[in-house]
Each structure stands twice: as structure tokens, then as C-alpha cells.
Amino acid sequence: MKITQHASADTLTLLLDGELDASSSVLLDTELTKPETLQYQKVLINCQKLNYISSAGLGVFISHLQQFQDAGVKLVFFNMQEKVHNVFEILGLDTLMTIVPSETEATAI
């Protein structure tokens, strides 16, 4: 998996490209653990090129969720493919995390 970053004044956008599984979840965890990540008001996760997510990948997001909330950082997922969105829905994570259809809606939050 490849992770591409784009930062603006108050928003960090991460584009996930490929499969988020046990091995690649370490890369994502490293990105989300960086101290500067919590300095943004929003962290947007672009899932347009995310083809697959495993329980390990989901675990990374779940493990950082409280830390983001405590720091006042909004975590927003957008452009999620249907098969990936279904995994979030089946596990009930769509009610725990903010998932919107487009980048426009994600930046408006």
C-alpha cells in the first residue's frame, strides 16, 4: 500500500492506495502516530484507491479514534469504495466514524 499526504493550514489528507492489511497497517499507524498529525483540525482519509481493508487496518483507525477525539481532531473518511464501506457497515463502524461520499463534504465538516 502507498500513502500520499497533502497538508493545508488546518487539514491533513491521506490518500490510501492499495490494500490495508496486517503488513501495511504498520505504515498507516506510523503516519497517524506522528505528533504533528494532532496539530491539524481535520485528518481526511481518501479511500478512493483503497481496494481492501483487513481487521488489522480497521484496528489502526479504532486505536487512534479516542486520541483524535481528545485532541479535537476530526477524522473523516471519503470516496470509499462500496466493498470497503460494507466492511465498516457490517462492523457498525459507520456509526462510530464519519464517512462521507466526497472530498467537498469532508472538507465542509
TrEMBL record:
Q: Which residues form the STAS domain?
A: 1-109
- Which residues does UniProt call coiled coil? none
Any matching Pfam family: STAS
Q: Spell out the CDD domains in the cross-references.
A: STAS_anti-anti-sigma_factors
State the superkingdom: Bacteria
GO molecular function annotation:
anti-sigma factor antagonist activity
| Entry-linked Gene3D superfamilies | STAS domain
- PROSITE patterns attached to this UniProt entry: STAS (PS50801)
The membrane spanning regions, by residue number, are: none
The family note in this entry says:
Belongs to the anti-sigma-factor antagonist family.
Please give the name of this protein. Anti-sigma factor antagonist
Organism (species): Hymenobacter telluris
